[in-house]
Specification:
InterPro entries: GH (IPR017853), GH_1_N_CS (IPR033132), Glyco_hydro_1 (IPR001360). Belongs to the glycosyl hydrolase 1 family. Keywords: Glycoprotein, Glycosidase, Hydrolase, Signal. Pfam families: Glyco_hydro_1. One of its GO terms (biological process) is carbohydrate metabolic process. With 496 residues, the protein is α/β, with parallel strands linked by helices. It has a single domain, classed as TIM Barrel. It contains 17 helices and 15 strands. The strands form 4 sheets. It has an 8-stranded parallel beta barrel, surrounded by 6 helices. Strands 6-8-9 form a 3-stranded mixed sheet. Helix 16 links the parallel strand 12 and strand 13. Helix 4 runs parallel beside helix 6, helix 9 runs antiparallel to helix 10 and helix 15 runs parallel beside helix 16. The longest helix is centred in the middle third of the chain and has 28 residues. The relative contact order is 0.13. The N terminus and C terminus are likely disordered. Bound molecules: 2-acetamido-2-deoxy-beta-D-glucopyranose (4 copies). One 2-acetamido-2-deoxy-beta-D-glucopyranose binds next to loops.
Amino acid sequence: MNSLRLLVSCVLISRCWSTEEPTFPPWFKFGVATAAYQVEGAWNVSDKGEGDWDRLFHVHPELKGHPNGDVACDSYHLWRRDIEMLEELGVDMYRFSISWPRLLPTGFPNHISQDGKNYYNNLIDGLVEKGIEPLITLYHFDMPQSLQDLGGWANPLIVNWFEDYARVVYTLFADRVKIFVTVNEPFIICELGYSKGHVPYHQDQDVGRFLCNKNTLLAHAKAWRLYDEEFRPLYHGKVSLSNLFIWFEPATPADKELTELALEHWEGRYGHPIYSKEGGWPLKIQKFLNDKAMKEGYPYPRMIPFTPEEIELVRGTYDFYGLNHYTTFLARRARPGEKIGRWPLYGSEELGMVMEGDPSWTTGEVDWFTMHPEGVRRQLHWLNDTYGVKEIIITENGYIKVDKQLNDWSRLKYTKDYLEQILLAINDGINVTGYTHWSLMDNFEWMVGYNVNFGLYSVDFKDPNRTRTPRESARYYSKVTRSRSVNHRHIGLNYV
Ligand SMILES: *[C@@H]1O[C@H](CO)[C@@H](O)[C@H](O)[C@H]1NC(C)=O
Ligand SMILES: *[C@@H]1O[C@H](CO)[C@@H](O)[C@H](O)[C@H]1NC(C)=O
Ligand SMILES: *[C@@H]1O[C@H](CO)[C@@H](O)[C@H](O)[C@H]1NC(C)=O
Ligand SMILES: *[C@@H]1O[C@H](CO)[C@@H](O)[C@H](O)[C@H]1NC(C)=O
C-alpha cells in the first residue's frame, strides 16, 4: 500500500489512530538473537579450541577462499557495543549462544577456559545490569573439532559429552540465566550437515543423517533432565530446544496426505519424540523411510529405533516449544519426471514433493523465502492442537536480504506482518510468551558467507572496527518494543 492510500484509508477508518489498537500483553518478551560462530570472531584467541567451522573453512580444499567467521562481527571484542544496540532497540531479552570450543578447548570439562568463561560472564553481567534477560543456546552449530574427529553427532557418546558440557554451562551461568535452548535446529545439523550443506560437511543421507537425528534428541533430553534434577530446584529456569519449522499447506486437497508426511519429515522427526503424549518417532514418516531402506537392501531401519527406556528418556523434556519460523510453502506431489528444484537437499526428493509459494504470496529476495504471515498463526495453532504445548517462544524469525541498504523496507514489513499474526494467535489463546528476532545484526551466514543479511543493524565487514549502523527495521523494532504495538502510526507513514 502506498502512503497516500494509507493516509486516505486511515482518515476514513479512524481506528488507525485509535488508542485501542491491539498491543502485546505485558508479560510478552521482545528480543533479538545471534549465534557464537556467526558473530564472535576471535577464533584463535587465548586457549580457545578449534571448532568444526574453523577446520572446514581453513583446511577443506573444496572451500579454499570461502569467507569464514575468523573475525565475523568481532563481538568477542565489541560486546559492549552489542549491549548498547540492545538498549537502543529496547528489547527485554537477548538470545546468544556459547561456543563449546571457546569454553571447553578440549571439548571435555577437564579444562575450562578462563578467558572463555570471563567473556560470557562479562556479557551476561552487562545484560543483567541493563535489565536485559539473557537466553543461552548451548549448541548453535559449532562443535569442538576434537569431538568431530570422533564422529560428532554420529557417535552415540556425544550424548554424554553434551551432558558434561551442559553441566559446565549451567554451573557457571544458571544463577543469572533462566532460559536455555539446548540444541538449535537439529533438522539443519542432521539434514544439511550430512548432505554437505553444513558441518560436518559429509555426504551420508542413509545412515549418518539418522544417527544424528537420534543422538541430537538424546543429547537434548539428557541436558534437560540434568537441569530438571540438579539446577531447577535452585534456579527455577526453563530449558527446551529450538526447532526450525517451515510451515506446509497442501497445494490441492489431493496433497493433504503428502503435507502431513512433510510435516512429520521436517518437524515430527525432531519434535514428536519430545512433545507428543506417546513419544517415539512419528509413525508415517518412520514407515515411509524404513520401507525405503528395506527396498534399498539395508538390513537396518533408516530411523534408528528408540528402546522403550529411550522413548521415556526423551518424552516430555521441554518447558516451552522453541520455534524458529521463517516461511511457508505449499506441498505438492511432483509430476512424473519433474525436477524437485533446490529442495532435494532437505529430503523433498525422497518424498517426491515440490515445495513452492502460492502465486498470490510475495516472494522474498532468495528462492527459499516466501512471505505468507498467516502461516505462522496456523502453525502456532497446529503446535497447540498437536502437542498441547502450554508455552511457545519464537526463538527465530527474520527476513533475508541480498542488498545491504539501510532502508530495508521489506524487512520492516515482514517483521510487522509476522508480529501482527503472532499477536492474533495470542489473542486466539495460544500462549506465545516471547520472540527473539533473527538477527540483531548482519553476521556470517554459514555457507553463504556475507552475501546475504538478516540484520536489524548493518555491519561494515570491510571496516576493522566492524561498525554497526541501525537500519529502518531497527528503528521500527525499537518502536514496537516500546509501544508493544506493531501499528505503523508509531513510525510515521514514510515506511508503510
Ligand atoms: C589467529 O588467526 C589470524 C587469522 O585469522 C592470524 O592472522 C593470527 O596470526 C592468528 N593468531 C594466533 C595467535 O595464532
Ligand atoms: C503461559 O505461559 C506462562 C509461562 O509458562 C504461564 O505462566 C502461563 O500460565 C501460561 N498461560 C496459559 C494460559 O497457559
Ligand atoms: C489448544 O489445544 C487444546 C487441547 O487440544 C484445545 O482444547 C484448545 O481449544 C486449543 N486452543 C486454541 C486457542 O485453539
Ligand atoms: C576504529 O576505532 C578506533 C578506536 O575507537 C578509532 O580510533 C578509529 O578511527 C576507528 N576507525 C575507523 C575506520 O572508524
